[in-house]
Design a protein that fits this description.
Elements: E1 7-8, E2 13-14, H1 23-33, H2 35-41, E3 45-50, H3 58-74, E4 80-85, H4 87-90, H5 97-113, E5 122-125, H6 131-140, H7 145-149, H8 152-158, H9 170-175, H10 178-181, H11 183-192, E6 198-201, H12 206-223, E7 231-234, H13 267-275, H14 293-305, H15 312-319, H16 324-349, H17 355-384, H18 391-395
Parallel strand pairs: 3-4, 4-5, 6-7
Antiparallel strand pairs: 1-2
Helix pairs in contact: 5-16, 6-11, 6-17, 11-12, 13-16, 14-15, 14-16
InterPro entries: aa-tRNA-synth_I_CS, aa-tRNA-synth_Ic, Rossmann-like_a/b/a_fold, Trp-tRNA-ligase, Trp-tRNA-ligase_bac-type, Trp-tRNA_synthetase
Protein name: Tryptophan--tRNA ligase, mitochondrial
Catalytic activity: tRNA(Trp) + L-tryptophan + ATP = L-tryptophyl-tRNA(Trp) + AMP + diphosphate + H(+)
Amino acid sequence: MLFGVRWHSRLGCCQPSWSCKSASTHAISGFNRHSKRLCATKAHVIFSGIQPTGVPHLGNYLGALQQWARLQNEALPSTQLLYAIVDLHAITTNQDADQLRRWKRETLATLLAVGLDPERSTIFYQSAVPEHTELMWILSCTASVGYLSRMTQWKSKLTVPDEVSALDSTSAKARLKLGLFSYPVLQAADILLYGATHVPVGEDQVQHLEFARQCADQFNTVHGEILVKPQTVLSSARRVMSLKEPHLKMSKSHQDFRSRIQVNDGPKLIGDKIRLAMTDSMPGVSYEPDHRPGVSNLLAIMSYLDGRGRTAEELARACNSMNMRQFKETVTSAISESLASTRDKYNRLMNKDETHYLDDIVIEGSNKARRQAGKTMAAVRQVVGLEHMGRALERI
């Protein structure tokens, strides 16, 4: 789960990047029209999450993390920002325990390296806030199995066709684990637990946000207006494609590590990966995604990083006279220079001397998140009849 957002700096408000016909996006459209009034009168809560699956790559950085930092820096002071490292989601597939611990620390260091400020944003491990799983169970008691069977998350993990339902496929049921199947319920709990008013997502996550809204609706219909229904903020996330297979998105799951640039890669490693990136034998440099996907991907990456705001087409014209070796050297320099400060800060944070600093950051963030989650859960427990006995429990 990884979210991105376009942030309107003058107003300090979220704005959608394109329209969608879902109910939640209609709500966002209204928010966009009246953003100035809402920003002045209502505090917003923004929630985003990232799975700890290793050091984030260039696609993660450009698609969401860079925008998270910008959102933090340009939001109104009244806006709450929560960023979760969603380690419970990570174990829907088998993980080596030591590797998962390392990945969590790498993800935490990356969030700080890209500019997230723990004094401004709440950064925490999902598993450190047990209210996530408690609310998940309560929501599971009303969540529709039929709806879940049509969700895309488990289908993509098991490479099951979209038209297949878990309820109808013997093969799917045999391979499907409950955790993966109920993943959207936990994701709904993540969001609803903090009263998130806006959740920035890519288009592939819209279905999950609709499900979170449905969970809130079902709960509120029975128990009253307890849970806040989040509004979906569609992101203008930049698509960065694989260096080896430019028709696929850059991914940490690709078996060839040379298919992606990690944010901690040094200049030499970046150069090696770009040198081996798929291009073509055509002369010159041109931006033609359909006919020259490899070259066009490198141009798109350069444009995302270009300090002068030049488009891929403009950069193609500037590089047109270069041969492929010269062009790849230019791309390497652009990426290496753009990641230099993030890479240096990441390496400092991952130094053994900074172990206690990272621990302190995540402990403080997790405690802050739990205090906020506790307020929601106190109301939820009361209306469903599960409230704690307070002092009576302390005396036992």
